[in-house]
UniProtKB/TrEMBL annotation, chain A:
<feature type="transmembrane region" description="Helical">
    <location>
        <begin position="833"/>
        <end position="858"/>
    </location>
</feature>
<dbReference type="Pfam" id="PF00041">
    <property type="entry name" value="fn3"/>
</dbReference>
<dbReference type="Pfam" id="PF17971">
    <property type="entry name" value="LIFR_D2"/>
</dbReference>
<dbReference type="InterPro" id="IPR050379">
    <property type="entry name" value="Type-I_Cytokine_Rcpt"/>
</dbReference>
<keyword id="KW-1015">Disulfide bond</keyword>
<dbReference type="InterPro" id="IPR003961">
    <property type="entry name" value="FN3_dom"/>
</dbReference>
<dbReference type="InterPro" id="IPR048497">
    <property type="entry name" value="LIF-R-like_Ig-like"/>
</dbReference>
<protein>
    <submittedName>
        <fullName>Leukemia inhibitory factor receptor</fullName>
    </submittedName>
</protein>
<keyword id="KW-0675">Receptor</keyword>
From TrEMBL, chain B:
<dbReference type="InterPro" id="IPR009079">
    <property type="entry name" value="4_helix_cytokine-like_core"/>
</dbReference>
<dbReference type="InterPro" id="IPR010681">
    <property type="entry name" value="PRF/CT"/>
</dbReference>
<comment type="similarity">
    <text>Belongs to the IL-6 superfamily.</text>
</comment>
<feature type="region of interest" description="Disordered">
    <location>
        <begin position="1"/>
        <end position="20"/>
    </location>
</feature>
<protein>
    <submittedName>
        <fullName>Cardiotrophin-1 isoform X2</fullName>
    </submittedName>
</protein>
<keyword id="KW-0964">Secreted</keyword>
<keyword id="KW-0202">Cytokine</keyword>
Length: 1096, 201
């Protein structure tokens, strides 16, 4: 206590002396003294106090300490004298002393040990630069934790009152985790000292839930005093404080139901006393991070957006499952398209789009608050679970006398908030409701009033409304009207310039005059305006009846815009200078009246009447001015109408009338008419009644004062089509080289256009072949004639071939196309002269050749005979083979030669021409005979050796004796027919003809006549199967060799005369009538020809 | 469905009629309802699991069977009890289920507000459990068995408390409640099946 007082007094002295020194100090002297002192200190280092060190924690008091000299006893006292302007000395029992902070600059400090004679004094030069500023160790006033947010709250005092002046202080805070004190965070925190003790707060949110592990906090500080020139150092660390969670017995997973930002990292831990075997987030397993005890944690990186119900994190222990749910989402997006408007100037509707979905629902969904800054009122958006992209709306009640509103829409969710602003003049943002209760009321036939309701308080604004007026078959009309807004919501406008007796459809929409949006259209309201008198008389025409006694008056119904109401009736009157006839009250559907008039000039007047009144009369003269110079012209339509033109005629003072009718109808016919102003020279006649392919007749009348004159008569088509029928044509005449064809006109109804010509095709062809081919295919063999002269009705086709079939086709065509074709087949007549020539020439040639050949043969007959037909022995001269004629002649039933079996022998045949009857059997060709002929080669004489073996006859014979004697004998039939073969036949043909082959060989071909041929055909198989009876002689028929059959190349082998057995070498049936040419020598042959010649 | 439920929601009106054909008809009708609800309960469970996210619904995932105050799963020895006792247990369980299902529905409305089918099924399930329980009570009355009077509903408060603990626990609790609903409806169907003539037990 005394020391303190003393120190205080000396300090005051030092202060006063320092002030004086600063004013009177002499620098050269000071330098000298300083050097002297330094040398003294160095010389007395040993055995003197040394290592003077000064620190301060408050910049006001320096705590200086030194080391005692060696050998100094425990009870050593020191006197510390400090030269600080004055010289102040302080006793000290210790080796330190607290002195007031010295003024800037060097100060001599002399430390003298007292009562220690061995020691010497020490002198030090001390300045602020040698002093260290070390703040006191800070102390944590409080450390608390907010476990749900994993936030630590630190509280400490800066002890600012200690330091004399304002200084910056840097605080370093360190966070340590787990029992092994892992530093997880070290941060600095800057404050300023203000001379008072201030408590500071600092919070830190842990990435790991605080429940997972114990967290420690320490703090130190650093005073950054800019005026202090000494050494500044950090204070010591405060005592660590910790936060730990006291788990109950239940295992828990932290954090619970935390909402986190998508893409962030999160640590989830399980505080448990059991062993955790695994952990997973959703389906993904995570590595475990072991904490204190059995607690574990997992770290989830870059978490993805959660589903509606969150992301499940599950820890599995041996016998249980623990988990938590994380909700990864986004902070609210800035509300987009914020718009505030009013429907009725009573309530403001603000709508916006929430923007990007937050993926957070339920309690975590974004909440919106609409704040109006001028009034300070706000409304909150009631949470809905509608679809995320749906526009949201908030209703704000308008305030009286406030037109400008400044809205701020704030969006908030657990991850953040955002806002959007809008400043509106609400009178310019009126979007009226759709007008309702639209009503129409009559004013007159051309004007109505429209009334409607538009709910809202619009007294201060004006409306611009659109009235849409729709009329049947008319373009819709839009009329704009400006209306002053009212409070009672009822509005009324007049709509004029309407047509009488017309159905109108009205609808309305409105906006404010300072346009923002049109309201929706009101419902349509249909209204029929009232009637007015017809504005014009009906369009009228007249026709004289065919007998010229009656005048038929036609008129057209008035169009709706001229009728001005429902036409009830018409009045027709005809007046001349002499008389007036009238027909009254002709009911409306009737548009025609007939009056019996003479041929005087009348003026016909037609008036239409409706419920309001009568139309002005429509007048027309009855007189027709004749026109002798009239030609019928043709016209074809274009598109839907037929254009007509005429020359301007100044005489036509009123109008032109074109009337038309279907040309196929009888007169007077009238389909319709059209009136054209007198200054016109062209028009297009259009009518829904026009049909393509139908011929119409148009009459152009010009109107003069006295009446109408027919100026032109035109037939035409709206569109030409191809004929639907072919011209009916016939062949008038046919010769060997030409055909004359004649055709008829096609009826107008079937022509369907103006006939432009005919196409005639012809070609050679039979009915069944060419019919299948088209003649239009451009084939070269098809000849075509285009007949463009439509008056031509015949055509002669020349240069044809005689007796040839021709295919003729005729078709008509119009500009609309080709009609169907009609075809015919015609055969030209035969060319008789040519035929005759064609026959006669070959015949004559044949005759000449025959005559020449005959002459030559006759002259060379001897040579020919010797060469080709030498005399051969007659086998009949053979005695051994001679049979009695009676055998053959007498017994007709005996068909075969009965012979006893014998051994073959040789027979020498000698030529005995005189004995032999005249039988031309020189051509016996049989196997046996051939054999003989072969043998004759060796013996050129006329000796023929015949091997004969009687065959066994297998036939039922009437003679039993013969049957018995037959035994196994065989008869061999030799083809005798060949003897009479008139023409040489190929060998193979002969073989083919030899029916039966190796078995039974027929002796002849029975089908000699047609009758026999048929029979033979029927019994062919039967006859070839076994023996062929020879007894049916009745069927035998000798055929003349020159008969047609004989020359038929296809005819079968023909035999002449009786069949005969070669065994007998005779004809089995001898000729009965020797005079008959049929039996005479076997008929015509070259051999006969030559053989008979000598007899000639 | 609704007509059948409507006819069963007030079965007490017919309980005085005790003729045998009527009893059989009532048992048959209640059994049919239980059979139908068993199918619906299975669908509800599937729907519930589908909306809770992984690993709910995975084959290997078996969360702890949280105890539900006032309602336990059908005991293994349930089948050995006399029929009236079994039906009494069924009726009691079915009476305890609606408030639990309501708690689950409310929590799911927060978690899955855009799953209207799940929410509708939960709402229907509560109503159907109530109707089936009443129908079983009516059968018991028709059988002449003593029926228990209205009992407090501690399950609801317990369920609400559990659900407030955390979303994960609420999900697990909901799964448990849906499972219990299925088990008890199925159990009721089996118990009634034993009373239906010609129906396999």
């Amino acid at each position: 206590m005394d020391f303190t007082l003393c120190l205080t007094q000396r300090s005051r002295m030092v202060d006063s002396k320092r002030m004086r020194m600063t004013s009177n100090f002499q620098w050269p002297l000071l330098t000298f003294i300083l050097l002297y002192l330094m040398s003294q200190v160095n010389s007395q280092k040993k055995g003197a106090p040394h290592d003077l060190k000064c620190i301060t924690n408050n910049l006001q008091v320096w705590d200086c300490s030194w080391k005692a000299p060696s050998g100094a006893g425990h009870g050593t006292f020191y006197e510390v004298c400090i030269e600080n302007g004055s010289y102040s000395c302080y006793p000290s029992e210790k080796t330190n002393i607290k002195i007031p902070a010295l003024s800037p600059g060097d100060h001599e400090v002399v430390i003298s040990p007292l009562r220690d004679f061995g020691s010497s004094i020490s002198k030090f030069i001390l300045s602020e630069k040698n002093v260290s500023l070390i703040p006191d160790t800070p102390e944590i006033l409080n450390l608390s934790a907010d476990f749900p947010t994993s936030t630590l709250h630190l509280k400490w005092s800066d002890r600012g009152s200690v330091l004399p002046r304002h200084s910056n202080v840097i605080w370093e805070i360190k966070i340590l985790r787990k029992k092994n004190m892992e530093i997880v965070k070290s941060v600095t925190h800057n404050t300023t000292l203000n001379g008072k003790d201030t408590v500071h707060h600092w919070s830190w949110t842990s990435d790991m839930p605080l429940e997972c592990a114990t967290h420690y906090v320490g703090i130190r500080c650093y005073v950054d005093d800019t005026h202090f020139s000494g050494h500044k150092e950090w204070s010591d660390w405060s005592q660590l404080k910790n936060i730990s969670w006291s788990p109950d017995s239940q295992t828990k997973v932290f954090p619970q139901d935390k909402v986190i930002l998508v893409g962030s990292d999160v640590i989830v831990c399980c505080v448990t006393r059991d062993n955790v075997s695994s952990a997973q987030i959703g389906l993904t397993k995570c590595p475990l991070i072991h904490l204190d005890g059995k607690n574990v944690a997992i770290k989830i990186h870059n978490i993805s957006v959660s589903a509606s119900s969150g992301t499940n994190v599950v820890f599995t222990t041996e016998d249980n499952i623990y988990g938590t749910v994380l909700f990864a989402g986004y902070p609210p997006d800035i509300p987009q398209k914020l718009n505030c408007e009013t429907y009725d100037l009573k309530e403001i509707v603000c709508s916006w789009n929430p923007g990007r979905p937050t993926a957070l629902v339920g309690p975590r969904v974004t909440s919106y608050t609409l704040f109006e800054s001028f009034s300070g009122k706000n409304v909150r958006f009631k949470r809905t679970e509608a679809s995320t992209n749906e526009s949201h709306q908030l209703f704000f009640q308008m305030l009286p006398n406030q037109e400008i509103y400044n809205f701020t829409l704030n969006a908030h969710n657990p991850l953040g908030q955002s806002e959007s602003m809008i400043l509106v003049n609400i009178t310019e943002k009126v979007y009226p409701h759709s007008p309702t209760s639209v009503k129409v009321k009559d004013v007159n036939s051309t004007a109505v009033t429209l009334s409607w309701r538009l709910p809202g308080n619009f007294a201060k604004i004006k409306f611009l409304c659109q009235i849409e007026i729709n009329k049947t078959n008319s373009i819709q009309e839009l009329r704009n009207v400006t209306i002053k807004g009212v409070e009672n919501s009822s509005y009324l406008v007049a709509v004029d310039k309407l047509n009488p007796y017309t159905i109108y459809t009205f609808r309305i929409r409105c906006s404010t005059e300072t346009f923002w949006k049109w309201s929706k259209w009101s419902n349509e309201k249909q209204y029929l305006t009232t009637e007015a008198i017809p504005s014009k008389g009906p369009d009228t025409w007249r026709e004289w009846s065919s007998d010229g006694k009656n005048l038929i008056i036609y008129w057209k119904p008035l169009p709706v815009n001229e009728a001005n109401g429902k036409i009830l009736s018409y009045n027709v009157s005809c007046s001349s200078d002499e008389e007036t006839q009238s027909l009254s009250e002709i009911p409306d559907p009737q548009h025609k009246a007939e009056l019996q008039l003479d041929k005087n000039d009348y003026i016909i007047s037609v008036v239409a009447k409706n419920s309001v009144g009568s139309s002005p009369p429509s007048k027309i003269a009855s007189m027709e001015i004749p026109n002798d110079d009239l030609k019928i012209e043709q016209a074809v339509g274009m598109g839907n109408g037929i254009p007509l033109t005429w020359n301007y005629d100044p005489n036509m003072t009123c109008d032109y009338v074109i009337k038309w009718c279907n040309s196929s109808r009888s007169e007077p016919c009238l389909m319709d008419w059209k009136k054209v102003p007198s200054n016109s020279t062209a028009t297009v006649i259009e009518s829904d009644q026009f049909r393509p392919g139908v011929r119409y007749h148009f009459f152009l009348y010009g109107c003069r004062n006295q009446g109408y004159q027919l100026l032109r008569s035109i037939i035409g088509y709206i569109e030409e089509l191809a004929p639907i029928v072919a011209p009916n044509f016939t062949v008038e005449d046919t010769s060997a080289d030409s055909i004359l064809v004649k055709w008829e006109d096609i009826p107008v109804e079937e022509l369907r256009g103006f006939l432009r010509g005919y196409l005639f095709y012809f070609e050679k062809g039979e009915r069944d072949t060419s019919k299948m081919r088209s003649l239009e295919s451009g084939r070269s063999d098809v000849k075509v004639k285009n007949i463009t002269d439509i008056s031509q009705k015949t055509l002669r086709i020349a240069d044809l071939q005689g007796k040839t079939s021709y295919h003729l086709v005729l078709r008509a065509y119009t500009d609309g196309g080709m009609g169907p074709e009609k075809s015919m087949f015609v055969v030209t007549k035969e060319n008789s002269v040519g035929l005759i020539i064609a026959i006669l020439i070959p015949v004559a040639v044949a005759i000449i050749v025959g005559v020449v050949t005959s002459i030559l043969c006759y002259r060379k007959r001897e040579w020919i005979k010797e060469t080709f037909y030498p005399d051969i022995p007659n086998p009949e001269n053979c005695k051994a083979l001679q049979f009695q004629k009676s055998v053959c002649q007498g017994n007709s039933t005996l068909k075969t030669l009965e012979m006893n079996p014998c051994t073959p022998n040789s027979v020498e045949v000698l030529e005995t021409r005189s004995i032999v009857p005249k039988i031309e059997d020189t051509e016996i060709i049989s196997p046996v005979a051939e054999h003989l002929e072969d043998s004759s080669d060796a013996e050129p004489e006329n000796h023929v050796v015949v091997s004969y073996c009687p065959p066994v006859i297998e036939e039922e014979i009437a003679n039993p004796g013969l049957d018995e004697g037959g035994g196994t004998s065989q008869v061999i039939y030799i083809d005798i027919q060949s003897m009479y073969q008139p023409q040489a036949k190929p060998e193979e043909e002969q073989e083919n003809d030899a029916v039966g082959g190796a078995g039974y060989k027929p002796q002849m071909h029975l089908p000699v006549t047609s009758t026999v041929e048929d029979l033979a055909a029927d019994d062919d198989l039967e006859k070839t199967a076994g023996y062929r009876p020879q007894a049916n002689v009745n069927t035998w028929n000798l055929v003349s060799p020159d008969s047609p059959r004989s020359t038929d190349s296809n005819s079968e082998i023909v035999s002449f005369g009786s069949p005969c057995s070669i065994n007998s070498r005779q004809f089995l049936i001898p000729p009965k009538d020797e005079d008959s040419p049929k039996s005479n020598g076997g008929g015509w042959s070259f051999t006969n020809f030559f053989q008979n010649k000598p007899n000639d | 469905m609704s007509r059948r439920e409507g006819s069963l929601e007030d079965p007490q009106t017919d309980s005085s009629i005790s003729s045998l054909p009527h009893l059989e008809a009532k048992i048959h009708q209640t059994h049919s309802l239980a059979r139908l609800l068993t199918k619906y309960a299975e669908q509800l469970l599937q729907e519930y699991v589908q909306h809770q996210g992984d690993p709910f619904g995975l084959p290997g995932f078996s969360p702890p069977r949280l105890p539900v105050a006032g309602l336990s799963a059908p005991a293994p020895g349930h089948a050995g009890l006399p029929a009236p006792e079994r039906l009494r247990l069924d009726a009691a369980a079915l009476a305890a289920l609606p408030p639990l299902l309501d708690v689950v529905r409310r929590r799911q409305a927060e978690l899955n507000p855009r799953a209207p089918r799940l929410l509708r099924r939960l709402e229907d399930a509560a109503r159907q459990a109530r109707a089936l329980g009443a129908a079983v009570e009516a059968v018991l009355a028709a059988l002449g068995a003593e029926t228990r009077g209205p009992r407090p509903e501690p399950a609801a408060a317990a369920a609400a408390a559990a659900a407030a603990a955390g979303v994960f626990l609420a999900k697990v609790l909901g799964l448990r409640v849906c499972g219990l609903y299925r088990d008890w409806v199925s159990r009721t169907e089996a118990d009634l099946g034993q009373l239906v003539p010609g129906c396999p037990a």
